[in-house]
Amino acid sequence: MKKILALLLALVMALALVACGGSNQNNTTPPANNTQNEEPANTENTENTEPAPTGAFKVGFITLHDENSTYDLNFINAAKAACEKLGVEYILKTNIPEGQECYETACDMADAGCKVVFADSFGHEDYMIQAAKEYKDVQFCHSTGTRAHTEGLDNYHNAFASIYEGRYLAGVAAGMKLKAMIDAGEFTADQAKIGYVGAFTYAEVVSGYTSFFLGVRSIVPEATMDVTFTGSWYDEAAEKEGANKLIQGGCKLISQHADSFGAPTACETAGVPDVSYNGSTKDVAPNTYIISSRINWEPYYEYVIKAVQAGEKMDPDWTGTIASGSVELTELNTDVAAPGTQEAIDAAKKALEAGTLHVFDTSKFTVDGKALDSYMADVDSDAAYEADTEVVADGYFHESEFRSAPYFDLTIDGITLLDTKF
Amino acid sequence: MNKKSLFYLAKRDALPWHKTWLIRGVAIVLALIFCSLITMLLTGLNPVQVFSTIFYGAFGTARKTWVTAQNLAILLGISLAITPAFKMRFWNIGAEGQVLIGCLACAACMITLEGKVSSGLMVVISLAASLLAGAVWGFLPAFFKANWETNETLFTLMMNYIATQLAAYFIIVWEVPKGSGKIGIINQSSEAGWLPVIGGQKYLLLILVVAVLTGLMFIYLQYSKHGYEIAVVGESHRTASYAGIKVNRVIIRTMVLSGAICGLVGFLLVSGTEHTLTTTLVGGRGFTAVMVSWLAKFNPIGMIFTSLLLVFLQRGATEISSVFGLNHSFADILTGIILFFIIGSDFFTNYEIHYQRSGKEGK
């Protein structure tokens, strides 16, 4: 028994020695330490648990996944850029599930002295509201949510952007590619079927793929589209499998609204052109990536931080636009895209900004074979899904005007939904 | 040449509790040193900083401490639930499903009775429904085991999948808004069916319930006739039969109790903390509970410490990966290392190593 103890003791001491040795090394070479630790500023912030002194303005960011998700990466980049530009401190917490953890994290941030807390995933909303009820003097801003305009809380806000316009423009690029392939004799116009990997059958996704499809149709009117759903915002295997299934089903081009590199990777392997989302995926798919649309959250973050610093009242429901720099197209891959794509995008963008072109122009699509002349959308979210607002007027569907988050949830002719029971 | 090995192993008699905990203590210290070593080698961070972060993650602020206590209560509750069955040598690994079905029953009451009954009545109905659902989930494998000698390990395991699929189905039925695949917080504005807040602390009532449960379970196992019967059945079915104990009845009775307590924890989880239903609500704690119970040698008081240890390390590991901007999997790696050491230490509490002197070696 004594020997075992002696042995253990020796082991402990040996390990402790190594451990101490390591820390010494760290102390003597602070620069090396800094390079290994990617976010030194962030670390410091998190450790400072005392309420911030009056000088330091602090904000918190909650994300559903980490940098491996294109969706969250897009938020994280915007958060860092905005905070750097405005010189405010920030706390970033990644991998926060859509549950009680979100509420706990938001409260933690408020405890730590954050004046504003941002969350990025749709499912975070209820928990942010819960935290907002408790911390009246902290602003809680939730992207993609739907309840701020009806909740009646002064410190709870939603934001989104008119991303359907970005999707439409990306669709134009996809249409140009399809047209080039038809012209080259690869297939005929009536075989021009495209595929789309979606996450959920919920309005945000429906609005996204429909606007993308309408963009494609503006160039290739015969085009049709198959949409498959994964039932998750981030499931690399399922997204890859979904893309492969669409490709096997005869889809000539793929796009997606799910956050991993699954679909772009599948496209690269199969050699099928891909229009991405949330940012360029050129690195993983240099031979098939055409273009990507994304929401740039930086303008919103700057708007909020400035407003809170100045003590001004904020919009409970903020919608970013092309004009505000919130809707962006990321680099066009000229190796893959058809010639003339940039010009076609620019023309469509100009028309959208001028108001002469509307994405959901009711003369451009039909639902069950009929033109859409009236639609009551469920703008004010409730459990009963009550349709409460007329959104068709002046010959187009007014998306993202009555609230920032999309509410276009119709299935238009030409789109076939697969696997809606995920 | 009959060469003797350097050492041989001998089974120990029961160790006094303080020696067991000494061995565990050493294992935990070693685990922490090993963890900081790994963290340091992979990320170049200072180990002192790593340790203080672990502690900060569990007890850094009042809020964190409360959350740790809540996590502790839930894990302890599930561990208490499975303990009678384990003491009976009935390998119930279906706590995950038994808790989840309790969650489902509670959520179902909260959603369908909204606006129909008062909040207090709703809490009572949800509680009854959760207890019943958990009890049914415990009864089925026990009934089959008692009557047809089915394998309880496989049976309870399969019941987990049924519970998960049922939960998944009802989440789609009740999702808000349509197509989003989530329920969100149930009755957020009315707070109907929510466990009342006492003393201004959200989790206090839940913690007290589990504390009382711990005491009751200790008395039940240690001093009641039922507890004695469970122990005898666990030693040998034949002895029990000979002593006039109705073995089948004890098996079914114990599993119904086990399942009902799991259902109670499901109720506490939904009505007391989460106010929602997801398929991952239990989050593997039904399995972790097996370890908590086992490490404490089925002693409810000992389980307070083993579950505290696991919850503390879990929250600490999560804090590390979050604070230092590491991938979430890093917390899992650290937890894995710690568990490896703790489970490994069980070997040393059960066996002792005897070294053989080479001088005494015979020809």
Biggest interface, residues from each chain: A-B, 60 and 48 residues
Order of secondary-structure elements of chain B: EHHHHHHHHHHHHHE
Molecular shape of chain B: globular
CATH superfamily of the largest domain in chain A: Response regulator
- Give the DSSP E fraction of chain A (strand runs of 2 or more residues): 15-25%
**Outline type of chain A:** globular
> What is the CATH T-level topology of the largest domain in chain A?
Rossmann fold
The secondary-structure class of chain A comes to: alpha/beta
Low-confidence stretches of chain B: none
Averaged pLDDT of chain A:
85
How many distinct folded domains of chain A? 2
Number of helices of chain B: 13
- Biggest sheet strand line-up of chain A: 12-10-9-8-6-7-19
Number of strands of chain A: 19
The residue-averaged pLDDT of chain B reads 88
**What is the helical fraction of chain A, as a range of percent?**
40-55%
Please state the oligomeric state of the protein chains shown: heterodimer
Strand content of chain B: under 5%
